[in-house]
C-alpha cells in the first residue's frame, strides 16, 4: 500500500472516531433536561455544544470544506480527503475516494441536523424542568428549603466547573494559534533563507562572469596596444620606403639631366 492509500485509510479511521465522539455529544445533549435538573443541565449545555461544534469543525476539515482551528475532539488532520482522492494511484480508487467525499458530506449534514434538533428538544426539556423547579422552590415546607440549598451549592459548583472548562478551552485555542503563528513564521524564515541562497548563488555566478569580463577587457587592451605598435611600425617602414623611392627617383633624374647636357655641349 502506497503512502497516499495509507493516508486515506488513516483519515477514514479518524473520521469514524470523530463521528462516534460527535454522536456521544449529541446523545448527552438530548439527555439534558430529562432528569429534572433544569438549572444544572442548562449550565452544562454550552460545554456540550462547544465539544460538538469542535467535532463538526474537525469533520469539515477532513472532508475538505474548510481548514479550521480545531479544539477539543481531535487535533487538526494532516490530510484532507478531497486532496488525497485526486492523488490515488488508480482511476478506480480516485472515483471511490470522490464518492466517499460525497458520502461524508451527506453524513455531516445529517449529524449537523441531529445536533440542531437535539438542542431544540433539550431547550424545551430544560425550560420545562426549570419551570418545575421554580414551582417547587416557591412552595413552602422543609423540602423546598433543602432543595434551594442543594441547588445553590450545585449551581455554584457547576458554574465554577464551567468557568474552568471555558478558560482551559480558551487557553488551548490560544496555544494552537501560537503554534500556527510560529509555524507560519518558520515557513517565512525558510522561504527567506531559500531566497537568500538563490541570491548568493546568482551573485557568485555574476562575480565569475565579471571576472571573465575583466580578463577579456585586459586582453583586448593588450591587443589594442600591440595593434597600435604594429600600425606605427608599419607606417614608419612605409614612410622610409617612400623616402627611399623618392630619393632614388631624384638621383636618376639628375643623372639624366647631366647626360643630356653633356651631349648637347659635345
From TrEMBL:
- Where would you find the membrane-spanning parts of this chain? 229-247
Determine the domain of life of the protein's source.
Eukaryota
Tell me the Gene Ontology biological-process terms attached to this UniProt entry. Answer: retrograde vesicle-mediated transport, Golgi to endoplasmic reticulum
Compartment annotation: Endoplasmic reticulum membrane
Which key words tag this protein in UniProt? Answer: Coiled coil, Endoplasmic reticulum, ER-Golgi transport, Membrane, Transmembrane, Transmembrane helix, Transport
Q: How does it sit in the membrane?
A: Single-pass type IV membrane protein
- Asked if Endoplasmic reticulum is a keyword of the record, the answer is yes
Annotated family: Belongs to the SEC20 family.
Highest classification ranks of the organism: Eukaryota, Viridiplantae, Streptophyta, Embryophyta, Tracheophyta
**What is the name listed in the Swiss-Prot or TrEMBL entry for this protein?**
Vesicle transport protein SEC20
- Where does the record place a coiled coil? none
Organism field: Rhynchospora pubera
InterPro entries according to UniProt: Sec20, Sec20_C
Q: Where is the Sec20 C-terminal domain?
A: 159-250
Gene Ontology molecular functions: SNAP receptor activity
Q: What Gene Ontology cellular-component terms does the record carry?
A: endoplasmic reticulum membrane; SNARE complex
Amino acid at each position: 500500500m502506497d503512502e497516499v492509500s495509507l493516508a486515506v485509510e488513516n483519515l477514514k479511521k479518524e473520521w469514524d472516531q470523530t463521528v462516534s465522539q460527535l454522536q456521544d455529544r449529541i446523545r448527552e445533549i438530548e439527555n439534558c433536561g430529562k432528569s429534572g435538573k433544569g438549572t444544572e443541565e442548562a449550565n452544562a449545555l454550552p460545554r456540550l455544544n462547544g465539544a460538538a461544534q469542535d467535532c463538526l469543525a474537525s469533520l469539515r476539515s477532513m472532508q475538505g470544506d474548510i481548514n479550521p482551528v480545531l479544539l477539543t475532539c481531535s487535533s487538526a488532520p494532516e490530510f484532507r480527503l478531497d486532496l488525497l482522492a485526486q492523488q490515488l494511484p488508480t482511476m478506480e480508487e480516485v472515483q471511490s475516494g470522490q464518492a466517499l467525499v460525497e458520502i461524508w458530506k451527506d453524513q455531516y449534514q445529517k449529524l449537523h441536523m441531529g445536533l440542531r434538533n437535539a438542542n431544540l428538544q433539550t431547550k424545551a426539556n430544560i425550560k420545562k424542568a426549570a419551570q418545575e423547579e421554580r414551582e417547587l422552590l416557591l412552595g413552602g415546607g422543609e423540602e423546598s428549603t433543602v432543595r434551594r440549598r442543594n441547588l445553590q451549592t450545585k449551581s455554584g459548583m457547576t458554574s465554577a466547573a464551567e468557568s474552568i472548562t471555558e478558560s482551559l478551552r480558551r487557553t488551548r485555542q490560544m496555544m494552537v494559534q501560537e503554534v500556527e503563528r510560529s509555524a507560519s513564521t518558520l515557513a517565512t524564515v525558510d522561504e527567506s533563507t531559500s531566497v537568500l541562497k538563490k541570491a548568493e548563488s546568482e551573485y557568485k555566478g555574476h562575480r565569475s562572469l565579471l571576472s571573465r569580463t575583466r580578463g577579456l577587457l585586459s586582453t583586448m587592451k593588450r591587443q589594442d596596444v600591440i595593434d597600435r605598435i604594429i600600425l606605427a611600425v608599419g607606417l614608419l617602414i612605409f614612410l622610409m620606403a617612400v623616402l627611399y623611392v623618392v630619393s632614388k627617383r631624384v638621383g636618376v633624374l639628375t643623372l639624366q639631366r647631366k647626360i643630356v647636357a653633356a651631349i648637347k655641349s659635345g
